[in-house]
Task: structure prediction
Amino acid sequence: MTDLLYWLQGAVPETPAPKVEMPPWGETKVVGKPVPRVDAYERVSGSAVYPLDFALPDMLHAAILRSPHAHAVVKSIDTSAAEKMPGVRAVITGKTPGTDIPWYRSRGKSYSKLFDDRVRHEGDEVAAVAAETRAQAYDALKAIRVTYEELPFVLDPQKALEAGAPAIHEGTNRYGDPSKYERGDVAAGFAAADAVVEGTYSTACEIHAPMEVHGSVVKWDGNRLTVWDTTQGVFVVQQQVAAALKLPLANVRVIGHYMGGGFGSKLEAGKYTVIAALLAKMTARPVKLFLSREEVFLNAGNRPANTMKVKIGAKKDGTLTAIEFLSMGSGGAYPNGADTSFLAADLYTCPNVKTLDENVAINAGRARAMRAPGFPQGAWALEQAMDELAKKLGMDPVELRLKNVPKVSQRRGNQPYTSTGLAECLRDGAKEFGWAEAKKKAKGDGAVKRGVGVASGLWGYGGGPPATVVVKLFADGSVNLNSGAADIGTGTKTIMAQVVAEELGVPLDRIQIEHADTGTTQYTGPSGGSKTVPSDMPAVRAAAVEVREKLLKAAAEEMKLPVDDLALSNGEVVSKQDPSKKLLVTAVPGLQRQQVLVGVGTRGPNVEGKVISMFAAHFAEVEVNTKTGEVTVTRLLAAQDSARVMNRLTFECQVQGGLVMGLGLGRTEERVLDRNTGKMCNVNWHDYKIPTALDVPAEQKVHSVDLVDTECNTAGAKGVGEPATIPTAAAIANAVHDAVGIRVHDSPVTPPRLVALLAGRGKKG
Ligand code: MOS
Result:
């Protein structure tokens, strides 16, 4: 319903955030340590209740009828047989009163409705059923008779722009004008270059495949709706569902305690939630509506395919003189972001840059934000081109990158970064990987050749307001933390507990967390954009500090000591001057009188005139079987600059997962559409290949360069989820080139593709 990344850029309801001053942490006791997850037992034992597990008494089960065609007009729908099927309690279509709800909004325009009479991709919603059991609901779908008038379809963005191409929406197939950026004089830059490389690269479309499929359980109490949703942001779902159903925000309560992964596909409300709410209203029963895995493949979003033309010029010493980057992608049948050019304009120092991003409609499932949307694709092209350039200049690829490390964000008005760790990532990463030694090693004289590659990346958003957190210290010294943030599997709750423990000197097991419930917890944006730590932890810290200040003030009165002589440690208030003077926290009269001390923390604004970015350099070693085209990734190393590491364990988990997703982009993942029917061919786990344990390299290392950044925010941490997956695929492709001298321009590097290239067929670089 909303534009990709809208909230990353501060387009969330703009609240003036009060400035929060807080000194940087010195030596920390809990923050930064490899603390196991506070909810680890619940997660691994299966006792955690995810929305997919959730059940209410008297609940109905709903299912959605979806278009089998890539492009068609729905001429008529006959639901009479379905309505008579066993267990069926309600059937809705676009004709049912109350379903005329606009959907897929972009730039003030709606591109569809809840049930449109025009379907624009396989999987578009046509009707829905609520029945006593899930099987009855799916059976009833088969009894709905739909007459479609099939329309010509187009699957290729390039072809969608040709004259006479099927029009997917009114007017042009372009989603807005191409976005253009230019600085300096690119022609002069190329003229001044000693070496120029040029090439066209493409990435395949990757499907969202979180462990927990998308869906909700909904229940009405009068005109108040409660939604249990698997989501990255309960407040986003609240806003969108309330708008769709024309309800006050306060009447929509969204709860999302546990959720089984989202990676960007759960940053907005799904049609399924609103459809479930309508069915629940019609039947006066709670309704559960979860998509099947096949429906997720067709309808829950993807990282769009991109074609990128890149040209780079440099002086003999490696100084970049010009970059041109032209990208073509598709938001799918409905608008969403498909731009990839940001890295080309910001990752390296270069005075002359020109970029262009085209976003075009096609008759295929819609794109959704996917872990660093646009950036892994951009890195695939830019970082392979940089590798080509290094070869042409006779320079080491690490040296070429080091030569052009940026000091300011050129893409954002030459503002300085709060910290820039790209050089450290490249240097430390190369050292720990054994880059120099690996480069010298023989490639192997049998059919299997060895190679190594490097690529770098940055992620450009550092979080921000609004976020509010409440911390309560109870009379027995236990603590309750209240935040609206979702823990999307990254360890958010654990890090929140660490921050509170750090400030209040209480053990982690004395801290309980209430989170992700619009009815009972405090507002924050969705967990995404690698911004949960940088957006929410400063608010957590501010709330805990307020409680500490109240407690120390009360203790100072009792102990007759100045407040600034007092510190909190292990459940005691202790004098810094004379550690023999101490008072149990639970014995502080001010706490006992009130029974609870409350702190409210808000996220202050980001530093003005500076840019917050995370940096990364990834190193890969591969073995290529020149007979079969098989690529085995034997080693990966990620060197990351996220400033402070809040928790070594969760940090490492994030980066390990990022590397595996990068492996998927580079090696295995590809949505295949049938050019004759427009339908997805590999709509199952078997044929759509996400990496499994057997694909993960035997050695996968994580290195943090641990920069001190006192400006990014009051937690000192920049975030890590997305930068951890940006350069991986490009590093693997560069390693393949190092091994066999073949440039694989198109992802993924599959055996058939590589065998063709090795045999001299197909596109070569
Ligand atoms: Mo991420 S794509 O911001 O969840």
Summary: The first strand starts at residue 60 and ends at 66. Confidence is low (pLDDT under 50) at residues 1-7. The chain is about 25% helix and 25% strand. The chain has three domains: 2-30+463-602, 51-151+209-299, 306-462+609-758.
